[in-house]
Design a protein that fits this description.
CATH architecture of the largest domain: Sandwich
Largest sheet: 6 strands, mixed
Protein name: Laccase
Shape: globular
Structural class: mainly beta
CATH class of the largest domain: Mainly Beta
CATH superfamily of the largest domain: Cupredoxins -  blue copper proteins
Radius of gyration: 24 Å
Catalytic activity: 4 hydroquinone + O2 = 4 benzosemiquinone + 2 H2O
Strand order of the largest sheet: 11-10-13-18-15-16
Number of domains: 4
Mean pLDDT: 90
Keywords: Apoplast, Copper, Glycoprotein, Lignin degradation, Metal-binding, Oxidoreductase, Repeat, Secreted
Number of strands: 35
CATH topology of the largest domain: Immunoglobulin-like
Enzyme class: oxidoreductase
InterPro entries: Cu-oxidase-like_N, Cu-oxidase_2nd, Cu-oxidase_C, Cu-oxidase_fam, Cu_oxidase_CS, Cu_oxidase_Cu_BS, Cupredoxin, CuRO_1_LCC
Distance between the termini: 26 Å
Length: 627
């Protein structure tokens, strides 16, 4: 189903519906309506024929929709979402930006908080929205499946409460995405096999449609209808896999009022910049002559000499008085003006304009301080490897790291399962709080520092710890803007700048009054950013670059936040239907593992043994179901 605009909102089934109906008939429903609700949804992941750019592809979708269903809830509501996997790939779903207080099992990153949902199986995610309002989204968190498996998550204020800005006449969610004229899984697998950079996307999209500037796309261009004199809320989500994007609406000012489901001091701009994973809420006033205006997005590409998709996607803001239902050729949309692809000044001007709307509860004192280098690297070609497997620069393989550790996902247990059940050998808790050596991070870096170490390491935090993280970009191979996302938390961005972070000088620049609160920070190209948060949510939480090519290469780590005191400061028990544990060989099924299984709160039969030899071994080991 491709009628995204007309059929995009998933239809929930509410608990106590019949009781509510009875109360409504008797005039006593107001107290019930004010109570938080539980929304039930079914997500069926499946292959769906989707035609774009003149070609039809078997595309992985949710409920046959591309993009997937929009979820709408109120602050305080609970979501119960059963995900049924009818596709041929293993996958998980991540609820991007949801705090997941004590419900880390439902966060979704593959092999971090759960093993994947295998084809033919299902898993039910359960979580409550607590203290969040605005725009979030959901997406697959397995390989590159999120290229087409994603959708909006809209959080309205509690019933009876209002926005801290004038009530908009209309609300519209616009999801910016990328489209490959190929199977995205094949694209990333080719890159992983060869060690080279993956092919860039063929088109950008708005709500799944490329728009007028691409072949075979005009008919599907998204139309946003408006009347003159309205104030409307536009929720912009960067769902693209690998690209920061500029966004604008021709001849209309954008009043920014929120980002990443957090309100902001309103300010007006003509263009916004979003890294993958980020959301921005803007108000527009339809005060222009009735006509048709392009809504436009294209790349902000900060890496020098790196290939990128230099095309432009469009939708159309259409005043109803200018509707062209009879003859669209008579009213050509007015073009929008966007910054140059490498306009870092405009990108920085936008990100540094964000402010919390009041005195922010940012930690003033710090218990844990980390300095993380974030950037690319190159791995030497392993001995005995063929040249076709080392097609990176000068016969190498691309890599990425934090503090010289290139993150490797487990393949048998999730990190959270291993932690909760005390399973050894899955990870080590010695992720370094600083890089192994100091160097000129944004200067001419010695080639001896270009090769990271592959490992699965986490950093432990005590419950309630006040944490500061300095993200320092590096010039290893190239400098680039990195959108860094932290699962399970929001943080305050207290400062950012260019060059090397200098604690003696740059600490004085910290904004501890009204820094913006986000879940994804854009670390400036060749620069740094500093965030602070309180570790008050137990679990294992992934921290990673939201450019999927970079997390594929290892630009990630994880925080392990320990339980506090009592039930309300402790992780909930794992769900009964948590996906099975995975072993790659029967030789791993030892007495120790069997003992672990017997003591596990999971059902005793939750053990999947995958062959490491034989005709189908490679398919199983790549976690793809082939039968």
């Amino acid at each position: 189903m491709e009628a995204f605009f007309n059929n995009s909102i998933a239809k929930p089934r509410y608990y106590l519906f019949l009781l509510g109906l009875v109360l409504l008939l008797f005039g006593n429903a107001v107290p019930l309506l004010a109570e938080p609700r539980t929304h039930l949804h079914d997500f069926v992941v499946q292959e769906t024929p989707v035609k774009r750019l003149c070609k039809t592809h078997k595309t992985i979708t949710v409920n046959g929709q591309y993009p997937g269903p929009t979820l709408e809830v109120n602050n305080g509501d609970t979501l119960v979402i059963k995900v049924v996997n009818r596709a041929r790939y293993n996958l998980t779903i991540h609820w991007h930006g949801v705090r997941q207080m004590r419900t880390a099992w439902s966060d979704g990153p593959e092999f971090v908080t759960q093993c994947p949902i295998r084809p033919g199986k299902s898993f039910t995610y359960r979580f409550t929205i607590q203290g969040q309002e605005g725009t979030l989204w959901w997406h697959a968190h397995s390989s590159w499946l999120r290229a087409t498996v994603y959708g909006a998550l809209i959080i309205h204020p509690k019933e009876g409460c209002s926005y801290p800005f004038p009530k908009p006449k209309r609300e519209t969610a616009l999801l910016l995405g990328e489209w490959w004229d190929a199977n995205p899984i094949d694209v990333v697998r080719t890159a992983t096999r060869t060690g080279a950079a993956p092919n860039v996307s063929t088109a950008y999209t708005i709500n799944g449609q490329p728009g007028d500037f691409y072949k075979c796309s005009t008919k599907g261009t998204v139309i946003v209808p408006v009347d003159s004199g309205e104030t409307n809320l536009i929720r912009v989500i960067n769902s693209a896999l690998n690209q920061q994007l500029f966004f604008t609406i021709a001849n209309h000012k954008l009043t920014v009022v929120g980002a990443d489901a957090a309100y902001l001091k309103p300010f007006t701009t003509s263009v916004i910049m979003l890294g993958p994973g980020q959301t921005t809420d803007v108000l527009i006033t339809t005060n222009q002559p009735p006509s048709r205006y392009y809504i436009t997005a294209r790349a902000y590409a900060s890496a020098q000499n790196a290939p990128f998709d230099n095309t432009t996607t469009t939708a159309i803001l259409e005043y109803k008085a200018a509707s062209c239902s009879s003859n669209c050729t008579q009213i050509k949309p007015i073009n929008a003006s966007l910054p140059a692809f490498n306009d870092t000044r405009t990108a920085t001007a936008f990100t540094t304009s964000l402010r919390y709307p009041m005195k922010a509860p940012v930690p003033a004192d710090i218990d844990e301080s980390l300095f993380l280098t974030v950037g690319l690297g190159l791995m030497k070609c392993p001995k005995g490897s063929r040249a076709r497997n080392c097609q990176g620069p000068n016969g190498t393989r691309f890599a990425a790291s934090m503090n010289n550790v290139s993150f490797v996902l487990p393949s048998n247990f999730s990190l959270l399962q291993a932690h909760q059940q005390g399973i050894p050998g899955v990870f080590t808790a010695d992720f370094p709080a600083a890089p192994p050596v100091k160097f000129d991070y944004t200067g001419n870096v010695s080639r001896g520092l270009w090769q990271p170490v592959k490992a699965t390491k986490v950093y432990k935090l005590k419950y309630g710890a006040r944490v500061q993280v300095v993200f320092q970009g590096t010039s290893i191979f190239t400098t680039e803007n990195h959108p860094i996302h932290l699962h399970g938390y929001d943080f305050f961005i207290v400062a950012e700048g260019f060059g090397n972070f200098n604690p003696k000088k740059d600490t004085a620049k910290f904004n501890l009054v009204d820094p913006p609160m986000r879940n994804t920070v854009s670390v400036p190209v060749g620069g740094w950013a500093v965030v602070r948060f309180v570790a008050d949510n137990p679990g294992v939480w992934l921290l990673h670059c939201h450019l999927d090519v970079h997390i594929t290469w290892g630009l990630a780590m994880a925080f392990l936040v320990e339980n506090g005191v009592g039930e309300l400061q402790s992780l909930e028990a794992p769900p009964a239907d948590l996906p099975w544990l995975v072993f790659n060989d029967t030789s791993m099924v030892t007495d120790d593992i069997n003992a672990t299984r017997q003591s596990s709160p999971l059902p005793r039969d939750r053990l999947l043994v995958l062959p490491t030899r034989g005709a189908h071994a490679s398919q199983y080991l790549s976690l793809e179901w082939t039968h």
